[in-house]
């Protein structure tokens, strides 16, 4: 009887270690997948991550990610302005497209780092694999847009409309989606680590509890479950 109990305890401990190891691996995988920077970020000062409604605090991992995002934004700010030609694969770095009607435009693989898209109409747009790192996208309309595998590291999407947007495999590390409308958006396999979803509407969105546990904040957000 004692041997059976001892065996059960050992197996339980092994199972617990396996679960913890998987969670740690998942967090580290997301962290390592972010774009590498050449400059030293050790002096960057960022706030600690908030506890989310899921009751999980990423602590040092979130701080490291936010440092990386902050350093990335700094690096982007030093890039020259692109040609600003609206075409797939185009160089639109720091281009001012604010308030423009870009309905159904195809900007697949385009470089939109640091671009200003505030208030622009990108409904139905194709932004497949587009790089929107540190772009300004407050109140942008991305209804039904295809952002599959897009890079939105440190992107400001405050009050953005992303209803039924396809964000499968997108990288939203450190992105700000405060008050964003993501109803029925598809976030399958999207990297949401240290992203701010406070006050966002995620009703009917395709996203799992593990992804949301990695965010900076979901305080006040409407969740899909």
Give descriptors for this structure.
225 residues, mainly alpha, Pectate Lyase C-like, 2 domains, disordered N terminus
Can you describe what's shown?
The protein is 24% helix and 0% strand. It is mostly helical. It has two domains: 1-32; 36-225, Pectate Lyase C-like, CATH 2.160.20. It is globular.
In short:
This protein is mainly alpha-helical and 225 residues long. It is built from three helices and no strands.
Topology at a glance:
Elements: H1 2-32, H2 60-77, H3 209-213
Mean pLDDT: 82
Ranges with pLDDT <50 over ≥5 residues?
1-56
| Structural class designation | mainly alpha
Number of helices: 3
In percent terms, what proportion of residues is strand? under 5%
Q: What would the CATH topology of the largest domain be?
A: Pectate Lyase C-like
CATH architecture of the largest domain: 3 Solenoid
Total domain count = 2
User: What Rg, in angstroms, do the CA atoms define?
Assistant: 19 Å
Helix and strand element order: HHH
Fraction of helical residues? 10-25%
Please report the distance between the alpha carbons of the first and last residues.
43 Å
| Largest sheet properties | none
Tell me the overall shape: globular
State the CATH class of the largest domain. Answer: Mainly Beta
Number of strands: 0
